[in-house]
Design goal:
Helix content: 25-40%
CATH class of the largest domain: Alpha Beta
Radius of gyration: 19 Å
Oligomer: single chain
Number of helices: 13
Structural class: alpha/beta
CATH architecture of the largest domain: 3-Layer(aba) Sandwich
Strand content: 15-25%
CATH topology of the largest domain: Rossmann fold
Number of domains: 2
Distance between the termini: 55 Å
Shape: globular
Length: 330
């Protein structure tokens, strides 16, 4: 496959706060359209998500197909397009991609190491208004073990744009995990993203907070502020790439601080916390506390942050876990 020519860094907009004051999925859609205008191999494969047909489909109808609400077919069609030399972006909801279409993702896409970009929205509990049937709290655990798969979870709209551009030339499959509604802006510009390299958001020598996803990163930064007021300096790592994991950054954190606290909008089994435990156990064993959603359904309707806090993912719980590590390590 020839080199993609559409992954140049984006210029920083004059008013980043206003430019990125939209949901991550909206930034993804406008970035994808921009890239596709420059590269006719980029193909948008829709599963009746709503919005893509009016934007991408209307402007580039020859690079757009809507397979309907048929997620298994979505993956098979995308795999076929990739095998023929195109660069398909398969669009669906995270829970549907990771469970309903799991066999097709495993065999058709990952098993053949095809450059299908599986872009999912409504990750974690960002579809909290739909109830637990639309929660995606185990998607990383289901997708991460698949061969050749890259898993990216941007922390905000700016990082989403950077991630889309940085992965445009990726030779294998990608799982890009996005939310639904607008979330706080963490990064001021779109060009600080490096695939597979954790981003240091705050330095500290006492404990390290490792977070992935919009609200987990925001809460980790809020927890670091709480800890600072209590005399504890926390390092904060934005682990936007869950696979391949930045083992080097985790090793440095394990050696220079007293332990790690992981934060995620995912169950504690199989997600970021599990990946971090696997990495430090092999490289430099240290205490790890995992802040994530416990086993069981969140069987009520609420907004995303409220659901996470109810599940125990909050700045206060993060800070308490950090204090426990520091206390135990002297």
């Amino acid at each position: 496959m020839s080199e993609v020519i559409t992954d140049a860094p984006a210029p920083t907009p004059p008013d980043a706060a206003e430019h990125y004051a939209v949901p991550t999925r909206e930034v993804y859609r406008r970035t994808l359209l921009e890239l596709a205008r420059a590269d006719p191999r980029i193909f948008c494969v829709d599963s009746d998500m709503g919005g893509l047909e009016d934007g991408f489909g209307r402007e580039l109808p020859d690079q757009y197909v809507n397979v309907g609400i048929a997620e298994a077919n979505l993956m098979g069609v995308s795999a076929g397009l990739a095998h023929s030399g195109l660069l398909p972006y398969a669009n669906t909801i995270s829970g549907f991609a990771a469970s309903r279409a799991a066999e097709q993702v495993k065999i058709d896409v990952a098993g053949n190491n095809l450059p299908v970009r599986i872009v999912v929205t409504h990750a974690g509990v960002s579809a909290g208004h739909y109830g637990p049937t639309h929660h995606a709290l185990e998607d990383i655990a289901l997708i991460r073990p698949l061969p050749h798969m890259t898993v990216v979870v941007p922390c905000d709209a700016a990082e989403t744009e950077a991630a889309v551009r940085a992965t445009a030339a990726l030779p294998g499959p990608l799982f890009l995990r996005l939310g639904r509604a607008r979330t706080p802006l963490v990064t001021a510009e779109p060009n600080g993203f490096r695939l597979g390299e954790a981003r240091l958001l705050r330095d500290g020598d006492d404990v390290t907070l490792v977070a992935t996803g919009p609200y987990p990163v925001v809460m980790a930064l809020e927890a670091a502020e709480l800890l600072a007021r209590q005399g504890c300096e926390a390092r904060v790592l934005n682990m936007h790439t869950v696979k391949p994991l930045d083992v080097a950054a985790l090793g440095r954190a394990a050696r220079r601080t007293r332990g790690l606290v992981t934060v995620e909008d995912h169950v504690r089994v199989g997600g970021l916390g599990a990946a971090v435990c696997e990495a430090v156990a092999e490289d430099h064993p240290c205490p790890v506390r995992r802040i994530g959603v416990p086993d069981g359904y969140l069987d009520f309707v609420a907004d995303e942050r409220s659901l996470l806090e109810h599940a125990g993912v909050s700045p206060e719980r993060i800070a308490a876990a950090a204090h426990d590590i520091v206390r135990r390590r002297g």
